[in-house]
Write a structure and sequence with these properties.
Helix content is about 30%, strand content about 20%. The chain is an alpha/beta fold and about 250 residues long. The strands form two sheets. It has a five-stranded parallel beta sheet, with helices on both faces. It has a five-stranded mixed beta sheet with strand order 6-7-10-8-9, sandwiched between helices.
């Protein structure tokens, strides 16, 4: 009998932010296929004999998405209960949509278990609200790491600059110089506050702040590395008002 595959979001990385259902499925699954983004504390909750690392490994080696898709189908057809564990939410830049479609095409039942996306949780734990009644009535969540096979970017930075509100960029540390320059060229104020939240909710979380004009230098001086969330907008300036009251962050 073909078993169900669960596409599970692990949230931003703190085990306490796992949903009740996600934690139950991790305890019950025969096999858990995970990458690195769920974070070490969550991965350590899983018996090593029941988990498979399908993420990026030392030396830049990574498991191709096609191999992950095939493995999910293979395990389900073997009658195994499978959890595909992803960072944040599986359908927010987590390729969950691709895996769901592949499973459906191969007749494998699946269920999506939403998680707390780092696009909202990352700024929040750093004292940065995604929205604010005074100056952020919209939130745009974009990827800083698009499919490399695309001929050109599908992100319209001109439109984002004109829209205003908050811009949250996931997986955008490496491309930070490109899109901050694009936003400035589109007319966004160079003094717009920007924050980088590295490893949000992990024990070694770090936050660096600057402006659209200075954030690249701030990144380099602080040594900010992936995974990190970039927040562009006036909301990023709110951190200064509340940072002293944030315990542990």
């Amino acid at each position: 009998m073909t078993e169900t595959v669960y596409l599970v979001g692990s949230g931003p990385g703190d085990p306490d932010l796992l949903t009740v259902k996600a934690r139950r499925l991790l305890d019950e699954a025969d096999v858990v296929l995970h990458d690195k983004l769920p974070g070490p504390d969550i991965i350590d909750l899983i018996d090593p004999e029941r988990r498979e690392d399908v993420g990026k490994r030392a030396g830049g080696e990574r498991t191709p998405q096609s191999a992950i898709n095939e493995r999910l189908v293979e395990l389900a057809h073997e009658g195994k209960s499978v959890v595909r564990l992803k960072g944040g939410d599986p359908f927010v830049f987590g390729r969950g949509g691709e895996e769901a479609a592949y499973l459906a095409d191969h007749g494998v039942p699946f269920e999506v278990v939403p998680g707390v996306t780092s696009a909202i949780a990352g700024p929040a734990v750093a004292g940065i609200p995604a929205t604010h009644r005074e100056y952020a009535s919209t939130v745009s969540v974009v990827t800083g790491h698009e499919d490399p096979t695309k001929e050109k970017s599908a992100v319209d930075w001109d439109a984002l600059a004109a829209t205003g509100g908050t811009i949250v960029v996931l997986m955008g540390v490496g491309k930070l110089p490109d899109y901050t320059a694009a936003l400035r060229e589109a007319g966004k104020d160079p003094e717009t506050p920007v924050a980088l939240v590295e490893r949000a909710t992990w024990p070694d979380q770090r936050v660096a702040t600057g402006t659209l004009d200075t954030i690249v230098d701030v990144r380099d001086e602080a040594g900010i590395e992936p995974p990190a969330v970039t927040v562009v907008g006036e909301v990023a300036g709110e951190r200064e008002r509340v940072v002293e009251f944030l315990e542990g962050y």
